[in-house]
Write a structure and sequence with these properties.
The complex is a heterodimer. By secondary structure, chain A is mainly α. Chain A has 12 helices and 2 strands. In chain A, 35% of the residues are buried. Chain B is globular. Classes of the chains: A mainly alpha, B alpha/beta. Chains A and B meet through helix 8 and helix 9 of A and helix 3, helix 4 and helix 7 of B.
Chain lengths: 298, 271
């Protein structure tokens, strides 16, 4: 009997079954913690720097007044409106097209058909294309071919093209992650494909879709290169989607690089941009939670 | 032996040898791979038919073909005829939604929707046009009562179906299926993911359901097949694909099989 007991140790002499020395465990834990702290620290540093240099410029007037003297004075109200309009056009275009494509890829085509493979490969390549290329495409197609010039429409559509690949791929993954057993259960009850999509797949996939959406919004809000030649740089209040508008991130770039004495304003604007991102993230998370709670309880 | 006989006599009272659903020369392929070859099997109205056999001989595929659920697997091809009351459900023009409403299915692993208990049942009712709230509430209650779940969940109909225990989840899935008043109920090893007590409950329930529906049950549990079914069919994997090697009244199949494989399998010496 004692032989039988000692046998496993003899069979696996060098596996991790034996206790690791305590110092090694501590080292690994310490390394992981410091990596995590580095990430948090980096974010805190950036935010702190922004606040330190931009906070004193921040006020309600800054948010509510139009810019003056190339942005050195006044506020950023027109820029904010332009930015939100650009984002609105981008999301208004990308959301329906993106969801539709994701559904088609996840539910309509088999993974292994040449068509599905081709679409997926194209999307993955597009997701990695530098944004300046999208800008050039936007200029040529929306600006010149369609004759929209430098406008919110051109800029927003260009942004939509830019965020679509990422959004489609993340949404497709979310739809695919809906368990097959649920789909089978729905089909076995005679539910149509559309009923199953609407009542089960969409709510189940909603958190993943939201994550993709937040990433896309982040990319769109941060974009400058693609908007250089599509949305333009006008600082006046846009009156329609055919007017030129300056995006907040582009405004920051101009204040920091092109406008002497604009640095403090650039920091303040950056602070607003980060605040806007956080706000949109929180809103999206809240919405998803409510949507999920109403329809699905996982 | 005497006990078996007694059960047989009880059952034959409610068992009428009228064919409800019939497979005629059904073969199933996944891409080019033959899974099931030339199955012809009548399923009698108001009877429980057990499909038994070793793993990988196409029992589940056969079951999923019976309500066109195999349509969800793009690689799968079904040939032959499957007649529901004499009408071939494999024909292309047929309304699959109606077929699945008439032929309900219970899966091996309970798969309640991540919705409230009530909504789990009401969702399909809505979809099939039963939208009157009063009627719906009544159907929900009746279905839950029929599976013996009503008393356990009547105060928490709004909580999620996935918070229930495994056995409760499976009963909810059965309630969901019978709420649509199907004519046939397909059960794919409905007890295999459950503990013995929950399993016994489901078995008991199946016996009750058999008085109202035509039941086809796939099971690995030979004792269960013997206790539960009026007819049994043994699938066997011979040349790399599944075949039906023997079918008949359960007591005959178990007591006096024609084939050597059947005798060995039912006595537990192979398979």
């Amino acid at each position: 009997m004692p032989e039988a007991i000692s046998q496993p140790a003899a069979l696996f002499p060098s596996t991790g079954i034996q206790a690791q020395p305590a110092w090694r465990e501590a080292c690994v834990a310490g390394a992981l913690w410091s990596v995590a702290l580095c990430i948090v620290g980096l974010f805190a540093w950036m935010l702190g720097d922004l606040m330190l240099r931009g906070m004193h410029e921040l006020s309600f007037d800054f948010l509510l007044l139009p810019p003056e003297d190339a942005g050195r004075a006044g506020g950023i109200s027109t820029i904010l409106v332009g930015t939100l309009a650009l984002l609105g056009v981008a999301l208004g275009t990308a959301l329906p097209i993106g969801l539709g494509s994701a559904l088609l890829l996840a539910e309509g085509t088999r993974t292994d058909t040449p068509f599905g493979r081709f679409v997926r490969r194209s999307l993955d390549v597009l997701a990695g294309v530098p944004s300046i290329i999208f800008g050039l495409f936007g200029l040529a197609f929306f600006g010149q071919f369609l004759g929209w010039g430098w406008s919110i429409l051109s800029g927003g559509m260009t942004l939509a093209c830019m965020i679509l690949p990422l959004f489609v791929r993340t949404s497709e993954q979310s739809f695919r992650a809906v368990p097959l057993t649920l789909r089978q259960g729905a089909a076995a009850l005679g539910l149509s494909k559309w009923a199953q999509l609407w009542h089960l797949s969409l709510p189940c996939a909603a958190p993943g879709i939201t994550a993709g959406l937040i990433l896309s919004i982040g990319r769109a809000l941060a974009e400058t290169a693609a908007l250089l030649f599509t949305a333009g740089a006008a600082m006046r209040m846009p009156e329609s989607v055919f007017d030129s508008a300056r995006a907040l991130s582009y405004h920051i770039y101009l204040l920091a690089i092109e406008v002497p004495g604009g640095q403090d304003r650039a920091y303040a604007s950056a602070l607003v941009l980060v605040g806007l991102l956080l706000l949109i993230n929180a809103g999206a998370v809240l919405l998803t939670r409510q949507f999920k709670h109403r329809l699905v309880q996982l | 032996m005497t006990k078996t006989n007694r059960v047989r006599i009880e059952k034959s009272d409610c068992c009428v040898a009228i064919t409800k659903l019939e497979a005629q020369a059904v073969s199933i392929r996944y891409r080019d791979h033959l899974v099931l070859h030339d199955i012809s099997l009548p399923l009698h109205k108001g009877c429980v038919t057990a499909i038994i056999g070793p793993s990988g001989c196409g029992k589940s595929s056969f079951l999923m073909a019976l309500n066109r659920l195999l349509d969800l697997v793009p690689e799968a091809q079904v040939s032959g005829k499957i007649l529901l009351d004499g009408e071939d459900i494999l024909e292309s023009g047929i309304n699959v939604t109606t077929i699945r409403r008439r032929i309900g299915m219970i899966f091996q692993k309970p798969n309640p929707f991540p919705l409230s208990i009530e909504r789990n049942i009401a969702l399909a009712l809505d979809h099939h046009g039963i939208t009157d709230p009063a009627v719906r509430t009544e159907v929900v209650e009746h279905s839950l009562q029929a599976v013996g779940l009503w008393d356990e969940v009547k105060d928490k109909l709004n909580t999620s179906g996935v918070t229930l225990s495994g056995g409760q989840q499976q009963r909810l899935c059965i309630a969901r299926a019978i709420a649509l008043q199907p004519e046939v109920l397909l059960m794919d090893e409905p007890c295999s993911a459950l503990d013995p007590r929950a399993s016994a409950q489901i078995e008991e329930l199946t016996r009750e359901l058999a008085q109202r529906f035509t039941v086809v049950i796939v099971t690995h549990n030979l004792q269960q097949a013997r206790r539960l079914s009026d007819y049994a069919a043994l699938f066997w994997n011979t040349n790399g694909y599944g075949e039906l090697i023997e079918a008949g009244p359960t007591n005959v199949l178990f007591a006096d099989p024609q084939r050597e494989e059947t005798r060995e399998y039912t006595q537990g010496t192979v398979g």
